[in-house]
Amino acid sequence: MKTSDYFYELPKELIAQTPLERRDSSRLLVLNKTSGEVEHKHFFDIIDYLKEGDCLILNDSRVLPARIYGVKKETGARVEFLLLTQRSQKVWECLAGPGKKARENTEFIFGDGIMTCKVLEVLENGNRVVEFYCEDNFFATLDKLGEMPLPPYITAKLEDKERYQTVYSKELGSAAAPTAGLHFTEDLLQKIRDKGINIGYVTLHVGLGTFRPVKVDDVTQHKMHSEHYEVPEETAKLIKETKANGGRVISVGTTSCRTLEAVAKEHGEVIACDGWTDIFIYPPYDFKVLDGLITNFHLPESTLIMLVSAFAGYDNIMKAYKIAVEEKYRFFSFGDAMLII
User: Fold this and answer.
1) Which of 55, 67, 186, 239 could form a disulfide with 198 if both were Cys (CB 3.0 to 4.6 A apart)?
2) Could you read off the pLDDT of 162-196 as tens digits, one per residue?
3) 3-63+160-340 falls under which CATH superfamily?
């Protein structure tokens, strides 16, 4: 298939700029992947579609306040750094802009001197390898200085940093939120547990490659970015038991989905492990783990709309997205949700 096959018209006003006051009050489009039937609900209704013995797999990665602004030590010129991947304790691969001000060996000052950095290397792709220096804990300092790295299509200011975190986020390391999980509240998760649905966690640190467009016409020629994941023993055991007992494994978000499918592809089943994955899921694809998927509405021509098309069927997804636009659903990170089951 061609990348252009995944294009759809989206009015700009349907791109959600701010989260709703109540996380679980967003709308929920329920798509039956067998029949293509669509239902319109609210996210708190999701419990009605989950059965005792099912399990939900959530990504517990926590977003770093990874956008920081510094000034060039020599000239005072302002430069933005966006932390992407941790190389060692205080060495990170970053985006820097304007890039011409962040040459090799250039030094920068942040927050009146509570942190400084030096550019160690300029990579072929334009990213910078940067070493940071601070007296206090690096992540505590980053929390004081940093802003949430909201996607480029969100232009409104985020008043509360926690609204770009899931309520169960724990492991620091993402440059973007696993947004399907933003709809859950502690109360809803407890109601799900009370119904006999088990909850397991994986960690996949989301990279900014999530937002990079597919620039090739032939989908199969696209190269995915690589992201670090971890599957704990208890999650691997939960998935195995759920399958053995006839329950369904339902992934919360494409990041959880990619983690499970990457591990199963490599090992034949989900086992406790960690590593890096650049798995790219597009039609046709034989899913080895997933029985259901909770997700948001994704950008046209993105790798994520390709993934959900592989799971639910291309025609079903494109029809569902057309309906979502007609019904004025809210799209992307702070938008409404879809349950594919």
Assistant:
1) 55
2) 999 999 999 988 888 999 999 999 999 999 999 99
3) QueA-like (3.40.1780.10)
Strands of the sheet with 227-231, listed across from one edge: 38-42, 27-31, 337-340, 292-296, 249-252, 55-59, 198-204, 227-231, 273-277
- Report d(CA 282, CA 6) in Å as an integer: 11
Strand 78-86 versus strand 67-72 pairing type: antiparallel
Lookup: tokens for 299: 């950008």
> Do 242 and 248 meet the contact criterion of CB atoms below 8 Å apart?
yes
pLDDT tens-digit series, residues 85-122: 888 888 999 999 988 889 999 999 999 899 999 999 99
pTM of the model: 0.91
For residue 39, give the H/E element and its range: strand 38-42
Q: Quickly list DSSP for 274-330.
A: EEEE-----SS---SS-SEEEEEPPPTT-HHHHHHHHHH-HHHHHHHHHHHHHTT--
Which residue, 83, 74, 124, 125, is CA-closest to 101?
74
What span, in angstroms and rounded, lies between the C-alpha atoms of 117 and 336?
39
Domain positions in the chain are: 3-63+160-340, 67-145
Higher local confidence (pLDDT), 40 or 139: 40
Return the CATH architecture of domain 67-145. Beta Barrel (2.40)
Q: What is the pLDDT of residue 185?
A: 98
DSSP 204-269: E---GGGGPPP--SBGGG-----EEEEE-HHHHHHHHHHHHTT--EEEESHHHHHHHHHHHHHHSS
Distance (Å, whole) CA 308 – CA 281? 9
What's the CA gap between 183 and 193, in Å, rounded?
16
Tokens of 257: 């989905």
With H, G, I as helix, E, B as strand and everything else as coil, classify residue 126: coil
Please report, for residues 12, 30, 41, 50, 137, the alpha-carbon distance to residue 341 in angstroms, rounded to integers and kept in the order given.
29, 8, 14, 10, 44
| Tens of pLDDT, residues 158-170 | 889 899 999 999 9
